[in-house]
Structure formats: structure tokens, C-alpha cells
Amino acid sequence: MEGIEKNQFVSSLQDRTKSFVLRSIKVFKALPSTEEARIIGKQFLRSASSVGANYRAVCRSRSQNEFFAKLSVTIEEADESLFWLEIIAEAGILPIEKLNSLMTEAEELVKILSKARKNTR
């Protein structure tokens, strides 16, 4: 990747992970006021917000090893977010139709970040 293309990719992914967090907050706010929704929702919001925060940390990595480690954490958090979205849908807490778009974004982020990690080896 050329320097300008790489910078655009990084900037685009920063925007995308931030948008993922903001969209996740909206899903969290839409959860019903039940005990299970509150517990699962907090787990989901923690992992989803970590995606954006950890990707920012990836961009500030000081070494290849730090980059790889932080990117791995970001991938894990995106995958965990997807897991909690699946639980929210399958437990009937929110209808799948309200979650499909965010689930797709989580899947895409996992794929993109995994490929980026693979390319760093």
C-alpha cells in the first residue's frame, strides 16, 4: 500500500470503528429495562466501545510487536461484540432486524482487521 493510500485506509478505519461504537450505543439505549438486557447490554457495550478505543491505540503503536498485540485485542473485541449481538437476537431481547446491520459491520471489521494483522507478519 502506498503512503497516501495507507493513510486513507487508516483514517477510514478509524472513522468506521468510531461509527461502530456510536451505533452500538444506540443499540444499547434501545434495550429493554430487564435484568438480562442490562447485564448483556453492558457486556456488549464494553466490547463494542473497546473496538474504537483499541483501534486508536493500534494507530499509535510504537513497534511492530505492539501493533500486532493491540490489533489482536481489537479483533477479539469486535468478535466479542458480534457474539453479544447474536445473544441479544437469539434471546429475543431485540429483534434481529434491528441488529442485522450492526452485526454485518462487526463481521466486516473482524475480517478487515484480521487481514491487516495477517499482512503484518
From TrEMBL:
<dbReference type="InterPro" id="IPR012657">
    <property type="entry name" value="23S_rRNA-intervening_sequence"/>
</dbReference>
<dbReference type="Pfam" id="PF05635">
    <property type="entry name" value="23S_rRNA_IVP"/>
</dbReference>
<dbReference type="InterPro" id="IPR036583">
    <property type="entry name" value="23S_rRNA_IVS_sf"/>
</dbReference>
<protein>
    <recommendedName>
        <fullName>Four helix bundle protein</fullName>
    </recommendedName>
</protein>
